[in-house]
Amino acid sequence: MNTIVTRKEGVAFCNAMLKKSQLKFDKILVDAPCSGEGTLRKSPKTFQMWNPNMIKKIAGVQRKLAGAAVGLLKVGGVMIYSTCTLAPEENEMVDDYLVKNFDVEVEAISLPLKFRSGVCSWEGKDLDSSVSKCLRMYPQDNDTDGFFVTRIRKVGEVGV
Question: What is the per-residue pLDDT for 125?
Answer without folding.
Answer: 96
